[in-house]
Amino acid sequence: MTKPPASSGPASSQHSMMEELSEASVREPVPADQKTMALDKVFWSHFSPNLGPGGWVTGALLVSLGLDFKTGVLAVLLGNLIGALPVALAASIGPATGLTQMEASRRALGRLGVRPPAFLNWIYCVGWDAVNNVPAATALMALLMLAGVSLPFWFALAVLASVQMVASIYGHHVVQAVQKYLGGLLLVTFILMGVVFAVRGSAPIAAHHPVSLSTFLLATGILVSFNLSWASYSSDYTRYLPADTSPKKVVWLALAGLLSSAIPFQILGLISAGSVANPSPTAVIASLQQAMGPLGAVALAAIALSSITGNSFNDNTASYSLISAGLHVPRVAAAILTALLGYGLAVAGAGRYTALYTDYLLVTMYWIAPWIGIVLADWYCGTRQPRPVPPGWTYGATIFAVTSVLTILLFSESQLYTGPVARWLDGADIGSYVGFFVAGGWYVLGMRSRASS
Length: 453
Hints:
Layout: H1 24-27, H2 41-47, H3 53-65, H4 69-91, H5 93-97, H6 101-104, H7 106-113, H8 115-146, H9 153-170, H10 172-200, H11 213-228, H12 247-272, H13 281-292, H14 296-324, H15 331-349, H16 353-381, H17 395-411, H18 420-424, H19 431-452
């Protein structure tokens, strides 16, 4: 009598849409027979989550910070390229290791050392849930009002959060399908919205005024953060690719997805800034609805649906990260907990969205920048072959902790705290750049020192 084959990886069957539920499915590499993902999904998984009002709000925010149109476009191009490149480079780690992004970083940080950034990433995902859902729920309420149906904010938010949670419960395969098919539909819709709004928008494109260096650096830092924030997700959605997939193709597809979604949306935000009362979800959505005229309902539906592409990612990655942080729970329980906390934060923080949005983007970079600097240094400056994972706290984990704390103390600029260097630079925030290069460079020096000893 023979035993039935046991499940040994993230999916019990390569044809099942439900990802394996156990915590082991997160901590172990994807088995070779399940690494069958199509390469085009790399583009969609990095493109679709950026389809939403967040980019539009960010573009409008640049004007309120003091940038004119030309300087704003320069900041958009520079900030997105700087922020997207590390994310694209991180995407190529997934096929070779078969691991989520957090679990892949245990090569450098150790099994114990990976727990702090994994826990921070879980908190981060909860915050992004709220950031994405506030404007989406506002759009859903406005859409239903056109049909004479009035919903309270908490109920509209609950509808969206429930759909997102179901996708994350199913896991990787359903999340990828959402990105590809819903993302394709949203792409067509947002192109239409962009054309109409660009024609009807009332931005002073030719206007020019002096912009201080500190203001430009602050705006660029926000834009860097917009894409760099995906660095802790990237391999989660490339690990099902065959191990021999070309790293260059993965990097270019990820980079194309990030830039082709973020840059156009943010520039349209700049164009529309003249007709937006303030960079808040309500003002941006009202201006979109008005500019679209008879197609206003289409715009509102697209904004509401866009939260599903972004937050199914957040909830799913958060479930991975909570397990990597050392919590011994099934993946589904972790996904449900994340969605519920994100819902509560969105309800509580809806009234101060702009402050939450800008502070959240900047503050979270103080741990993501040094962490991804170490991860990329370990992968691209060391051996890319599998090696034993250190069981405890490594030299890399110490670098991560020290660099994160020092950049917060010295460089951070927010409503809660401003470091001495940020004050000296008149509010300019360069902490993420310093954290990335100091942590990565320090790690490389340590690698070489240990190799020569």
